[in-house]
Amino acid sequence: MRAVIPDRLAVSATWTAAFAPLVWIPGASNMWIFGKALATALAVLLGVAAGYRGGIPRRLLAVGLVGLTVVVATALTSGHTATALLGRAPRYEGVPMLALYAAALWLGTTLAPGSAAREALPDALSGAMLALGAATLAEVLGHNPLGLTAVRSGSLLGNATDQGLFAMLALVVLIGPAYARRDALLGLGATAAVFVLAVSGSRAALIGVAAAAIVLIASQGRRYALAAMLAPLAAVALAIAVPLTRARFSDGFSIDARFQIWGMTWHLFRDHLWTGVGASGYMDTIGRYETTAWAHGAGRDNAILNSPHSWVWQFAADAGLVGVALAIALAVVVCSVGVRAARREDADDLTPGLLAAVIAFGVGLATNFTIVGSTVPAAFLLGVLIAPSAARLPSRRRRAALMLSVAAVVVAASACVAEIAFTRGVHEILAGHPEAGSRAIDRARLLRPYDPDIATLASSALAGSSATSAQQAARRYAEISQRAAPGTYRSALALAITDVTARRYTDAIARLDLLVAAYPARALPLVHRGIAELRMGRTAAAAADFERARILAPHDREITELLDQTR
Q1: Is the dihedral of CA 522, 528, 533, 534 positive or negative?
Q2: Which of 34, 134, 167, 172 makes a 20 to 30 Å CA pair with 476?
């Protein structure tokens, strides 16, 4: 019985890790991050409790430690040290989230060849794909319980490309076992993964699965050739058959947007060549490089970039040339340890797919951002690929690992509760209950004291309300945000808006002058400065601001109406 319990815990960890990307927080403003983080932390806790030792190769561990050093060093020189280390909304990829990615990698390394947990992986992935496939089908048929507004299906991942990348990972891993074992469950799981991948319309994921097919054919020859070729062909055929996703193949909008993002990021990188802008510094810096073309295209509706949509550019923006070197080193080491693992004598029928999935993820991530929903399963599968032989953890290390895992679960759970409290608080204030709403938001801040963006997002959500109580709350939270993270665009704009509403026009114009200078391709600071000038009787200055704003946002009716008031 004693020998059975660790295996059961390890199998439970495998299933929890497989389903972690599907977890969300119902009704929350940010449904997609903290629930997945909590499920991942629970999976790691179960893995630690099982007592099997993982083993991250020294080369990969060395790259990770160098990366951590770079993150800390750039944070210390960035001017926003605390937020750089802890992460910013919406992805929260500071040191805690990076540690969770590393923990998922470690958990994967506990799934040694021949272990019960490793044997459970195909079934777990199939189950996750069937669940995701059912949710995606419901969404396609018009049932939208999550209230999503995106054109393409993001289902339980919150983003179509994230969904496509997760389905791609599962599909590539399942191809081999489904083909070799002729297992009905694995076949259904692979079929569901093809469906999810196709409906996502993610070109990055489709390119990734094609790259995986090439890897499988090159490494396995005729053995997997048919199955490896059919998977991407089936996904592409289904994507073409569905009108919504078929349009993606002829729509160059997102492709143009990617090149615009990378062009703007190149200018940012060139100006911060040696140290970058620090982790989490991209969002408040890239606005200085935005163009009119960006404002007319993907930047419409006041979209704010939080990533360059490419993992290599992300490293470059965050850490400059050091980041580029680190990205290259990471790619080389991951490929080398992966290929070495694939050539071991104890390699099983999962190994080729695991190697192909990891490489495919790197290819797909060339045009997308890292985030918990897709990065955690990729890190976990990389760990499974390189997993050594199973062994018990020494008791002292096991106790320390258990304490850390429990702490991670508690922190992630409190983050989820905070997200619910924050959302309820904003709704309460907007509904005319400022005291109850403020208590809820303050409770969220207490539960996530490391997160200045609770105040930032609250100020941004409340600043547009005309109610005096909402304006007062917006100002309070904007000031909190600026103290914690000086220079944050959203809260700085919220402060200016509350100044305009309170008729402090001189203060508002002074704040907005700084925002207009720092973010010349954003229309909102110009609009609100124009409103302040118009109310002060400076009609000509207001008209000039509205004209500039209309150039940036020509389809905005409110700007046209404001401009008409100056004539």
Answers
A1: positive
A2: 34
